[in-house]
Design brief:
Blueprint lengths: L6 E8 L2 E6 L2 H12 L8 E4 L4 E4 L4 E4 L7 E6 L1 E4 L6 E3 L2 H17 L4 E4 L5 E6 L2 E5 L18 E6 L16 E8 L13 H19 L1 H5 L5 E7 L2 H4 L4 H8 L5 H17 L2 H25 L7 E5 L25 H18 L6 H6 L4 H5 L3 H6 L4 H23 L25 E5 L3 H7 L16 E6 L10 H4 L8 E2 L9 H32 L10 H13 L32 E3 L14 H5 L6 H13 L14
Helix pairs in contact: 3-19
Amino acid sequence: YEAVVPHWFYCKVTDSRERWVPFSAQDSERLEEAHGAGKEQDDVVVPTSGGRYDVRLRTRQRVAVYWEEEVSEVRRCTWFYKGDKDNKYIPYSESFSEELEEAYMIAVTLDEWKKKLESPNREVIILHNPKLMVHYHPVASSDDWVSTPTEQGRPRTVKRGVENIAVEIPSGEPLQIDHLVFVVHGIGPACDIRFRSIVQCVNDFRNVSLSMLQAHFKKAQEQQQVGRVEFLPVNWHSSLHSTGVDVDLERITLPSINRLRHFINDTILDVFFYNSSTYCQTIVDTVASEMNRLHRLFLQRNPQYGRPLTGWGREPNMHRSKLVSRKHDPFWICSQGSRTTSSMRGIEEVKEILRKLELSEYCDVFEKEKMDRQALFLCTETNLKEMGIPLGPRMKILHYLSSKTEMKQHRDCVPSKPQHPLLSQVSANYPQLDYKPTIFFAFGSPIGMFLTVRGVKRIDPNYSLPTCKGFFNIFHPFDPVAYRIEPMIVPELEFEPMLLPHHKGRKRMHLELKEGLTRMSVDLKNNLLGSLRVAWQSFTRAPVPALEAGGAEAEAEAEAGTEKQPDTKPEEPPAAVKEETPLINVGRLNGGNRIDYVLQEKPIESFNEYLFALQGHLCYWESEDTVLLVLKEIYQTQGITLDQPLPGSQ
């Protein structure tokens, strides 16, 4: 007899259906170690799933750390039986598993089988031999008052030990966290075509990233240069719809087509909320406060972490790119610089004003008082007097301030051109982040559209996000919500977005076939036109002179004349077929590198663009190509590259 090796499971409830999921081998060992040490008396908390969930041993509960989620039941499992509906194995309770193990030990030791046990649900389990153990449903006799468990009904298989059941046990995630990425969702509570939440979709994205790290950063992993990237979801939708706006909308919503109207209220209206100054402020505050909260909590749980963070978001992302950040270097969105940077810029503006007024000798006084532009316009004569400014300079400064204030008031009173309320510029106070993001990835984002409808026709090539060095706009070619950014920076040029390399190192076969056929048709067309020209020239050639001596010279001149004709130039292949893409200067928004990246559509998607349009907007969560680009750009900031460079990548 050998004691059974336990494995820890947790119960996941989806649509009122229970499913028992095994912990990773790494997490199960930690839980078993804490259990064996007898620490359950103190309600020890064991972090699992990369630190995103805590398991409370004494209460057998699994609790989410970074977001709100229902508590899951946890079991130390040794015995299992096959369920009725999906034929998946379900663990017995810990107490009954101990009874089964004790009966099994006696049967093996004494070699006495046919043991019959009764479960707490009055179900019968019979141990026929080590390889045949069955579980019977309770079937009562005609007299319910004296019913006893019987061996009637359909038997279910019983297994001992997790190694004897068909279940995939993950090995676990690397302990070392190299980078932190905040993921901000788009409109609505559902994030994919299966109507899953942001937490579930980010879990898929994280799992794909782990497989891509193993496939493309194997050398760096072997040298322990690479651990993993942590992705944390940022949920703002629930906070927005908990303000009471749903109750107000319910009162004015028509009763017909109820499900469609509910979907519109819950999803589409988020766009209008964003264009409302009231609710836009709520969205911005929620995103910033949630990201700061997650960042603080992450640092508390991972004090050894000291690397940058990233972030990415989906439609609409305008407010995220305006958030101000400071302190640590995370990878998220970025914007107008840190508090220190903005205050220094304000002091420089005050110095410029003093130089205009020929009062440069007082710059040190204003800098000592940390007087920026906003504070300067709040100054009174008494304040300037307390700072030691003489009467003459005081009058100059006060006259300048009053003149600027009057100009502003006059400008505010002048009636402007009427604008559509939904397309006008939304005013919001953008809070600061507690860190400086490094890269911003936009997936299927309409940032370009929002900028255009708000009157921004062109982005200055010299513009860059002050606290964020990288900006990537990634989209599927059939995504109906995505818009490009690069044409707003260089509108005078027409060029294609960068084709995102396939994660296996080549273009998809149907795209290569399409380009090959296009190249072949161009070559055939050029050859055919060349043959027609030669035939036409033979008919239209000048008659041969009678003199024999000059015949050769005349023929040579005739051939030279036909070669000089401009219409003999062969047709150039289209841009899609050219092998080399010319270098294009797209400004400093992404450090001089390309910004727009387009995914390669799948072969089945190329048959009908409209049919796969919705799927095109929801495909990013499980796209290996997208994940690999994110990992490649993140680890390049650390000086770590792919094992094998992908063709066509920058």
